[in-house]
Amino acid sequence: MSLINQMLKDLEARRQSEGPDALSPQAVNPGPRRSRWPWMLAGGLLVVGCVALGLWLGGAPQQEPCALGVAEKPVRVAQPSRPAQPVAATQIPAAGSETAMVTVAAPAAQHEQPEALPAEAVSGEAVEPLSAPTAVAVAEPPAVLTPGAPSAPAAAVVKTPETAEQQRTRQRDRVQALIQSGQLQQARQLLQKLVVQWPADKALCLQLASLLIGTQDYAAALAVVDQGVAAMPAEIDLHVLQARLLAETGQPESARQRLLALALPGLDQHSDYQLLLAVLHQRLGDYPAAMTIYRRLCERQPQRGNWWLGLAVAQQQAGQRADAQRSYQQALACSDLKAELRHYARQQLEP
Fold it and tell me: What global pTM score does this model have?
């Protein structure tokens, strides 16, 4: 409308500049006078049409130029689930991923060059699907503890229950530690409980009996061994210890009879059994029986000096002086003979 107003003002100024003489009959060609209003109306309509055309053109949406020079033909991307978009906003698969999309936008005002697309995308042909990416292991970041936040509960540790043998071994080690620290009374009480709990445990029975023997409580030790023999009648070591305790308590004959009554395999090869039986024979005056056992032991292990000494004493008691002298010399030739026994053997060899 401002353009129309300007045109009307120009017409009015022109008319005024011509003055009144311009309109007088003398200034014009004589004849019939024609009207100006049709021309003015046509000019006004022309101006209005031009203005309207300009407004229409100015308000119409401007089509942006294609980023890749292809404005009419859309790019078809190898994803059937998505419709093809114009190149100005085309989505193509990103390299290394089948799902991630990259948007190619129109060039900026600085005329930046867009990233080059594959020839298939420009020509409108279908783009081959990309191969699946190689899996890459990504290490998890360390957990960050937030102050004040409750920490996750620790995984429950399943503890394997101890077997009966493991429990006994642990208790025996505990008793041994008490004995080494001098706490004999506490060790005795613990062993008594353990023997009641496991009456068929040979190691516990021998450990308690040895502790009681060390305190010279032979009667209590004999009671413990009697229980062990009843629970484990095939154990030769318990029978030997039982006979020794009987001899210590003044019952050598009963001890010898207990040993002679045994009918267990391996007695001939059990050195402690054979040696105790020889000592009991010798104490009870049965020297021939004692010498028989001593000779058998010395033949089996001739380097045992105390066995030669036992044979020499039995021979001397039986009146075999010459044989006893030779046995004393064999005992002195053994390196394992203790000093006091070695001194006794030398005394017996003196004239």
Answer: 0.54
